[in-house]
Please model this.
Amino acid sequence: METVNALLLIFILACAVSVSLARSLLSAVIIFMLQSLAMSVVWILLRSPDLAITEAAVGAGVTSLLMFVALKKIHAVRTVKHEQHNGKA
Amino acid sequence: MNSITEKLKSFIDNGIDALDDEMLSELGAPETKQAPLKPEKPQRQAFHIAAKSRLGRCLHLCSGVLLCAALISLMLLTVSRLPAFGHPDTLSHNEVSEFYVENGVKDTGAVNIVTSIILNYRGFDTLGESHVLFIAVCAVMILLRNSPTDRSTLLSAYANGDDKDEPHDDLILFAGGRIAVPLILMFGLYIILNGNISPGGGFSGGAVIGAGLILYLSIYGYPASSRFMNITTFRAVSASALMSYCAFKTYHFICGYNGLESVFTRGVPGSIFSGGMLLYLNIFVGAVVAMTMYALFTLFRKGDF
Model:
């Protein structure tokens, strides 16, 4: 169990560093989502399942969704339609 | 000769920006004179900063890293001074937590100590937190909500079938949603209703329900979800939940302690209707949180409910 804990914490640290180093905003948000997911597993290992549920729903779910929508609003991600258009042209 | 006078003239006319242009053209960057000035500006400025002050940028980076390292070491130092996790002696140094552990079930009738703390002993804090969520949604609504003209154009666009962001005839998405959405909503309800006997409660369950509603909106589109989740629903549910919380808590402050007889009995610890008013408070908090999540998402998405 100790090794699983250590691995998860190392994974979270790596995620946190790579969020700040990520080139595209979209991949930064996805890495952030992964970090939240790993964090919720850590909460379960620390025996607080209620926090794990909240972390999974808010941290990995709603926050990332809000960031996706915000990225789309500021045209930081190319939508599918855009790509198809570019492909045809 | 001519070029020098031109240069001076442009310097007088345009100030420092013109000189930057000259510097750029000397450095071999593409000529920006013919191009319209406005769109080129950010790129040029960025280049200017990068070329001019490499030393300054290095200093900036170094000071940032040093500050970050100092902050991290400060926090790690603080964490190292905390009592060891799960150590049997740590609780005995803290009377408050010991009191909660010993008297939580007896005082509130809730098996889940976390719920008994955040909704009974510290119920006033939770009231403030719910209001913070409500105020956050109000602020987002002020900033992002469509004006009536924008709303009518949005609705007429939907009526004309010009809804490019909504899914159309996606069989896999619809079939998956038919399975996933009810399960998620039911799980959220379960967490809320069992808040006083199992891990979870209003906040976690409300977040799960909000995520389920967001999933429904993303799968079935705005027209389907706005049939039952609109501004009227949001207003009614949020406001009535917050006001009921206030009313219940006021009643609790007057009658809850000092051995006065209360309408809400503590019940048998471990059953659903135990813990007095904790079940109802959990439902109110869950309603507020779910509405907040959904409202934030839909306001960010289309600026409307």
Summary: Chain B touches chain A at residues 85, 114, 164, 191, 199-201, 203-205, 207-208, 210-211, 214, 293, 296-297, 300-301 (CB under 8 Å).
